[in-house]
User: Which sequence fits this backbone?
């Protein structure tokens, strides 16, 4: 199960040009996402009310999305604007429209109760000075302040919470990413997990690192530096929105003045119970390295996230081999490193139970 | 659900040469269809009673179909004629045989109560003079009277009634076949739908058309003719047997004397709840155009029916994405253009309910 | 259903080198089978207790199998030896270990109640003099006494009892293997089926044969010999362990002195209800023919067992087309040739019912 009364990223702006339409499964709901010729985004249930044909097979025209089967046209608000075989439009000729927003290159959708969407802001973390200014996802806008690799999307055959788990216990990087990120030092971290609200937490790892290229290049550290301070700080908002602030600096140096800082956006959207969309980007603070560092993070992260994709899919497949479809019930052995996972899963469960209670009432 | 006490087309004569056997799913029943060396067609349940092996894997011999596993031989009546490992043939050594008929190049099967088959004639429409003489499917026999493209079969991953719907609302041709049949004029038709019996109806479209090649070539109309009379008249018999009489003539001309007339046989047979066999042919009246017109209809119809196949499969897939397996319950928005569909579905539902009531009694 | 309190072959020794690990489904249980660097075999449930990741994705190290996700290490007894992210190892940090034995090149596993494994010897048949000395599976050890083709494994998409049935009614060879083994004479056999214990039986076929190459070459018979004595004697132990003693000798000759004798090991292990592992070997007695005869049996058996694989998979698929998953309920027509099958299925059913009764008690 997943909460429905929240904003999920449905797509990236660059996926849908004016006049384009795509089909995407969001929270078990097939949606047709399209952009009008003047640029407005709309998201409709991907099913014509007439013969239940997928609207995403249709074409975007001036007054809406035209169904490819019998030519009915629906506007972004779900209302029917034309029925080619008759002049009257019946009152029930309409399709569900989902609240949609576009911001910082991401298209967000609200799959739940539409009445609640208007009063709920898009997810964002409290911002601060310097690199913390990017925590409202403005770090996704390329500028002098941010060199941006992405955003990209991976469609993963695994429950979205397995991907959240993965990001909320970064000790996995010592094993899954031994050949890419190469930071076994994470196992000896100072670790701080703290809830920062009913649906937010921060998960901090600080450790000494001595690894060689390529991560060292990503942090613009001289080969001569024997040991450096490495940190990984994940800002999480339920259920699947994260920015991982990471960086390194020569031992004892000043994080911002002497080191490299990168904001790694990771956003998970449920497709079905057993699949999800994984949106990510790496934003290099102050765009250091004139694009080369950004490109390096692009290449390195693609390689590493392919490892995550493999891992998550094998984990999902194993859960299914054993007849379970998720780890939601926490039947597993809990380690100290799972502290953030346990906390996050409790917050998400509370959201789901809250929605169920509201429905039952 | 589908009616079982009726004749369905199982195969085309040319698919099964003497000595050949094929497996085909008809109404959720796997059947082995074979032709003896002397030409007789037989249809058996595709399951040897011994170890339940598919008989369609076997070989046709002089006295019947020999199972490929332990060599038992079954005659066309389902009786066992030989058991290689023993001399006695037990009384229960038999397999269900289905009533089968062959006519005008089609092989028909009766999947329901065999006792009712004998008294039920093969489907055919009332014939008349001229081009109406072909309505008993004699239009499938190539002759001076009929230039025949087909019959052909398409195996479609969609419920057979979705294909029936498709043919009983030809307004779809303006959209699905915009690039092949190119007859948007159908949207402004004079439309007459009338029941002609408990299990038959006629669905007539008459309209003015001005489209260019290739449809114009199919109707052998001069380029100089600015506007012509186009008609599409579907004869339907429940649940899935249709002949679409179509043609065109220069405005105000005589349909038979001055125009081209084509009979388009369309027969849908359920394979499973989510798949069907679509048999079709185009028969050019008086074989006009010396075979060239027939060939043109063959090519044009193949292209157009590939569009239908795509459409039907996408529609079926969408129904399944939303958890429904058919449109039988008519949860959809009903338009005026759906008049024939609604009438036909009611007739088919009545047949199914009748069979259920007879079983319960 | 399959019995669980018995030894099944899980793999062949040569499949798992020191330091190797494979995943294999045995009786619906995913197992990780690995060999330590010093050669010890261990079999664990293929699921890390932490995040339920498949252990078979991991690596074999000095002190056990390391999970590829967060690096936990498990010894062959299922106990956790290391958790990289913390120093303490909780008491519940363990995984199910299955009793495992290795003998004559086969790795056996006990998927049921581990307490019963210690007191149950590995399957073997009573041995005797000469070629009967190999019936304890020592015929799988290449030596002067045995020229061994195999062992090999085929992963078959069919219930394991369909494969047992196949081997307990060798009349199928006249049809399925008409082109490979070419021994239609089996249909006129002297046939003796006798139970030799609660879970063992012997199934004997003796017949005259006159077939040509290649089977004649396998039995080292001169072309000039017009007719010879052929025998097929299957030793079966429930549920899926068999040795088929087969051979031929010129009519009236002495089986051991003048003929060729081959022991064909056939062992079936359930993977799931609809798939199994089929381990086989051919052991040529006294290694006659200097390896050429052994090679001939290797090639001929591979070709013939590919025919069996096809047959079993088509049979399974047909059972599923008709909504059944096995023939366990014996809904089929029983012939005289099915005597051994009926007897064997009864013995296996008794085992399953016994286990169910023990569980309920």
Assistant:
């Amino acid at each position: 199960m997943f909460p429905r009364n929240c904003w999920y990223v449905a797509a990236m702006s660059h996926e849908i040009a004016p006049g384009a339409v795509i089909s995407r499964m969001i929270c078990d709901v097939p949606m047709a996402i399209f952009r009008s010729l003047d640029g407005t985004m709309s998201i409709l249930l991907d099913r014509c009310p007439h013969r239940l044909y997928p609207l995403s097979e249709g074409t975007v025209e001036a007054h809406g999305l035209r169904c490819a089967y019998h030519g009915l046209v629906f506007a972004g608000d779900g209302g029917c604007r034309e029925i080619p075989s008759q002049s009257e439009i019946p009152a029930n000729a309409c399709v569900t429209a989902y609240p949609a927003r576009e911001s910082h290159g991401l298209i967000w959708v609200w799959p739940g109760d539409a009445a609640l969407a208007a009063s709920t802001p898009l997810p964002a973390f409290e911002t601060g000075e310097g690199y913390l200014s990017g925590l409202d996802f403005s770090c996704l806008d390329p500028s002098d302040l941010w060199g941006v690799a992405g955003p990209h999307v991976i469609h993963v055959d695994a429950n979205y919470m397995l991907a959240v788990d993965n990001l909320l216990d970064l000790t996995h990087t010592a094993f899954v990413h031994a050949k890419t990120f190469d930071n076994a030092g994470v196992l000896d971290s100072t670790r701080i997990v703290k809830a920062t609200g009913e649906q937010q937490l921060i998960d901090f790892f600080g450790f000494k690192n001595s690894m060689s290229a390529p991560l060292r290049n990503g942090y613009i550290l001289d080969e001569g530096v024997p040991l450096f301070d490495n940190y990984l700080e994940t800002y999480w908002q339920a259920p699947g929105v994260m920015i991982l602030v990471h960086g390194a600096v020569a031992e004892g140096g000043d994080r911002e003045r002497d080191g490299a800082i990168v904001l790694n956006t990771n956003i998970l959207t449920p497709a079905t119970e057993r699949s999800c969309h994984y949106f990510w980007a790496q934003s290099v603070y102050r765009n250091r390295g004139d694009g080369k560092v950004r490109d390096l993070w692009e290449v390195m992260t693609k390689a590493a996230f392919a490892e995550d994709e493999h891992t998550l899919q094998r984990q999902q497949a194993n859960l299914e081999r054993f007849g379970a479809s998720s780890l939601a019930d926490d039947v597993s052995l809990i380690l100290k490193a799972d502290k953030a996972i346990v906390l996050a899963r409790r917050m998400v469960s509370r959201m789901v139970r809250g929605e169920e209670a509201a429905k039952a009432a």
In short: The radius of gyration of chain B is 22 Å. The domain at 130-357 of chain B is CATH 3.90.380.10 (Naphthalene 1,2-dioxygenase Alpha Subunit; Chain A, domain 1). Chain B is about 20% helix and 30% strand.
